């Protein structure tokens, strides 16, 4: 999966080690915004060195076909992160989708557009049958993004992920990519 242009100024691009500085800056800028939705992060997470190491591992996962990390860029500025991860082949042909948008860019439909593009790429480029995603029950914005893109809520997973320092329930969603 390569660069996906969403319009003249907005694109999804595979994240590379060279993006570590922008990614670290974006995480620092959005630290408070992301805190309720993500695992508790140690101080080193917000450094360029940590992000470079993380992106190096992500590049290996991409080469292995296990994960596809993307940055959402507007005018070459990183304004969000999108991941297709946990790719399972064989009879399952499934993966997980995760994402976030910079606090200054929420409410513009950007996540919905990016998820639509990644859903299409998951089918057409990766040959997947299914994408799954999860949201905290009170993350109504993310639920709207998923539902706009054909994801259906299939259940509730109690104590599913340790988010913001505590185990929290999550709604589970899936999109079947084939008719």
From TrEMBL:
Family: Belongs to the acetyltransferase family. RimJ subfamily.
Cross-referenced PANTHER family: [RIBOSOMAL PROTEIN US5]-ALANINE N-ACETYLTRANSFERASE (PTHR43792:SF8), GNAT FAMILY, PUTATIVE (AFU_ORTHOLOGUE AFUA_3G00765)-RELATED-RELATED (PTHR43792)
Span of domain N-acetyltransferase: 15-178
Listed InterPro entries: Acyl_CoA_acyltransferase, GNAT_dom, N-acetyltransferase
Keyword Cell wall biogenesis/degradation found: no
Keywords, ordered alphabetically: Acyltransferase, Transferase
Record protein name field: N-acetyltransferase domain-containing protein
Keyword Nucleus included in the entry's annotation: no
Native source species: Glutamicibacter nicotianae (Arthrobacter nicotianae)
